[in-house]
Design brief:
Layout: H1 7-23, H2 28-34, H3 39-48, H4 66-80, H5 83-103, H6 106-117, E1 123-126, E2 142-146, E3 149-160, E4 167-173, E5 183-189, E6 195-200, E7 211-222, E8 226-227, H7 233-245, H8 251-270, E9 272-273, E10 276-277, H9 282-310, H10 316-341, H11 352-362, H12 369-380
Parallel strand pairs: 1-4
Antiparallel strand pairs: 2-3, 3-7, 4-5, 5-8, 6-7, 9-10
Helix pairs in contact: 1-4, 4-5, 4-8, 5-6, 5-7, 7-10, 8-9, 8-10, 9-10, 10-11, 10-12
Bound molecules: flavin-adenine dinucleotide.
């Protein structure tokens, strides 16, 4: 067992950090305040190669491993200080692009992946519905085959990149009687007849990442845009995608925890009370120590999950554990960070206030903490 990254990985991490510090960090607080996605920042990240990482070279990708894609996420979280950007990046690369790469036909891959890898077409995943969040098998959107098309009807909600995306992987019921076993995946382009972006959702955190409903009203999806096998969508699309989401997409939270810890140490050394730096108080050191412990343990859980995926090991419980642990401790660490900053941590003057709002999404999106505990628990007793 070797716990070190290679020299190449270290250099890669450093280059992404430098890029993020230069191109993403400036204006991040304003984008949060204004809930504004910045296409220029996106395009620069695409030019840098961040949208293409995991995809094979023949589709415009860079062929990066899961570990290296995770490292890029970690570096973005550390250098960019823009959780919303990381969320949009993750939704595009991981939950939008990966299912097309993993399950698509050769034609689908040739058609969509080069545009996704170039960041030219922004992508996302449409699974959640107003009546079906945790209970994803309960989705109501239907897809009925007719004259070379599947006709989709229904509404998706909370879709990351909804207002800015050009192509979405959408899950719909092809056999409504069958629950999970009646769901099929489709690749839906923004220009398809009957498809529209619904109401935009105004969020508490991750505000530079746009979120909206997607609406399908007799939306005509060419039959060749079915993704994977009919009625296998839940298992194939949802589970493959969510497993990636519960590993690679979390890396940014780890980078975020690292920079937050560094900022807290700096603040604690500078801020003086009772005639001495607050860092000299053991109670403050304990909070820092907990943050360091959560950061290190998060890192190793994530690396194991990424390593598993690179070896082709499918382990839903490990991915759930990774998602549960990293997001729960990121929230606790964000709370400590505010506590260390005292009243100033509760103001817009310091980024810790934003981190706390951002961190709350982790325990909700991509399957809540309760659902992750359920997955882990039922695996333990199986
Ligand atoms: C900012 C944001 C971005 C998102 N992006 C996307 C996206 O790109 N694509 C997409 O498809 N979805 C997306 N989602 C949706 C997200 O995955 C869902 O919000 C999440 O799965 C929870 O569903 P829900 O909000 O309907 O909550 P509910 O399922 O209604 O849950 C409410 C509460 O009940 C609990 N609960 C529910 N069932 C159980 C149970 N069986 N046992 C114990 N507790 C339970 C939950 O844990 C939670 O505490 C996004 C959400 C947000 C907030």
């Amino acid at each position: 067992m070797d716990f070190r990254h290679t020299e190449e990985q270290e250099l890669f991490y450093k280059s992404v950090v430098e890029f993020a510090q230069k191109e993403i960090q400036p204006g991040a607080a304003e984008r949060d305040e204004e809930a504004r996605f910045d296409r220029d920042v996106w395009d620069k990240a695409a030019d840098f190669g961040l949208m293409s990482l995991p995809f094979p070279e023949e589709y415009g990708g860079s062929g990066a491993s899961v570990m290296d894609t995770s490292l890029a996420g970690e570096a973005l979280g550390y250098g960019g200080l823009d959780a919303g950007f990381c969320l949009s990046w993750g939704a595009h690369v991981v939950i939008g692009g990966i299912p097309i790469w993993q399950l698509g036909t050769e034609e689908q891959k040739q058609k969509y992946l080069p545009k996704i890898a170039a960041g030219e077409w922004i992508s996302g995943l449409g699974l959640t519905e107003p009546e079906a969040g945790s209970d994803a098998g309960g989705i109501l959107t239907t897809a009925v085959k007719k004259d070379g098309y599947y006709v989709l009807n229904g509404t998706k909600t909370f879709i990351t990149n909804g207002p800015i995306g050009e192509v979405f992987v959408v899950l719909a019921k092809t056999d409504p009687e069958k629950g999970h076993a009646g769901i099929t995946g489709f690749i839906v382009e923004k220009g398809f007849k009957g498809f529209s972006v619904g109401k935009e959702i105004h969020k508490t955190g991750n505000r530079s990442s746009p979120t909206s409903e997607l609406v399908f009203e007799d939306c005509e999806v060419p039959a060749e845009n079915m993704l994977g096998e009919e009625n296998q969508g839940f298992l194939q699309v949802a589970m493959t995608t969510l497993e990636w989401e519960r590993s690679v997409m979390l890396a940014a939270a780890i980078g975020g925890q690292q920079i937050q810890l560094e900022e807290c140490i700096k603040y604690a050394k500078e801020r003086r009370q009772f005639g001495r730096p607050i860092a000299s108080f053991q109670a403050v050191q304990f909070m820092l120590a907990d943050m360091k412990m959560w950061l290190e343990t998060s890192r190793w859980i994530l690396y194991k999950t990424a390593w598993n995926k690179d070896q082709g090991i499918m382990d839903h419980a490990q991915a759930a554990l990774s998602k549960l642990y990293i997001t729960e401790v990121a929230l606790k660490a964000a709370r400590n960070a505010i506590q260390i900053h005292g009243g100033y941590g509760y103001t817009k003057e310091y980024a810790v206030e934003r981190s706390y709002r951002d961190a709350q999404l982790g325990v909700l999106g991509g399957g809540t903490s309760e659902i992750q505990r359920w997955i882990i628990g039922r695996t333990l007793i199986a």
